[in-house]
Amino acid sequence: MDHPDYTPLPKLNVKEMLTVADTFEMSAVVGRYCKNTGEPPERALRIANETKKFLILCALDHDQGYAIQDPIDEMWHTFILFTKPYFKFCRALGKPYIHHAPTEENHRKATGQVRLDSYAKLLKDYETTFGFAPPTDIWPQPGAGQPRKGPDCGPDCSYYPPCCNKE
Question: pTM of the entire structure?
Answer without folding.
Answer: 0.79
